[in-house]
Amino acid sequence: MSESSQAFTPEEWKKKLRHTRSQMVEKLDALAEGNLQPQVRDAVRSEIRETLKILKRERDMMIGCLAEESNFIDELETRLKEIERVNKRRFHLLPPAPTNGQIDFEEKRARHFAQGKSFYKLFWVFFIGCFLGVIIERLWCFVRFGVFEPRVGLIYGPFNLVYGVGAWALTMALYQFRNRSKLFSFIGGALVGSVVEYTCSWFQETVFGSVSWDYSNQPFNLNGRICLLYSIYWGLLGILWIKEIYPRMARLILRIPDRIGKPLTFVLAIFMVFNSVMTGLTALRWVNRRQGEPPRNAIEAYFDEHYPDERMQRIFSNLEFTQDDAAPVQENGK
What we know:
Blueprint: H1 10-33, H2 38-88, H3 100-110, H4 119-145, H5 161-174, H6 182-208, E1 210-211, E2 221-222, E3 226-227, H7 228-254, H8 258-290, H9 298-306, H10 309-315, E4 320-321
Antiparallel strand pairs: 1-4, 2-3
Helix pairs in contact: 1-2, 3-7, 4-5, 4-7, 4-8, 5-6, 5-7, 6-7
């Protein structure tokens, strides 16, 4: 068994295993017979234990190699299919999304400031997600209900942190599977999306005493924060995200010149932090004001003057406070 690190053909490996098995069975039979001297018996046991260690090490090594080869086969097959799919498309409303393999190559060749899973790439994914999610939901609400609603989550600009965090989380979770089959994207999207949705719902209700969506009337829901149907939607979005949306977004980010990319990233990051802090402070003052608490300082007085209830309700039109006896919130609104 000392040649365990050597490479064997399947026939040689089977022959070696049969020989090892024959030797070990013979030694086990000798132990079972019980006629060995104590010193010999201990030596036989030690040899069997050592052989077990070697066999387990060989097994684990082979399992690891098989898993690595299986992953490579899946990646190779997926990348080939994606390239063939793009090349076969003749008629399409939109240009086909680049494959993730193409994005990887372009980022490496350009030595772009936002390549891979760097801070810069993830911030831009988050920023674009905050904006794009609001636009898509506005269009969805118009198609479904015939009205345009703000659907924002911050007081300045058409941004919603839920979508930005969702885009960031999907990218973080699915990036390593970007060149793998769609099954990985579906499972990862369902899990990550549900966790993000549940966490955001819990945080909003715990901190602000309000909710923006409620799935209590949906089957297989968890505390009304998530449900099976929307977890499936998140899974489908995971596929759409990493195979269609993210590659387009990554190519768009590639167009940002290096000389302005980094400073612009920090400027926008500061703006989003300020926007988020202001949103949190004005929302907390809104809650306190509804409870009849007068302003305690000049900042709260400023909030009362510039961010009264009417303006806050207009910005967050789909928000409902949990203590109100109003009608239930829309089940998919955020």
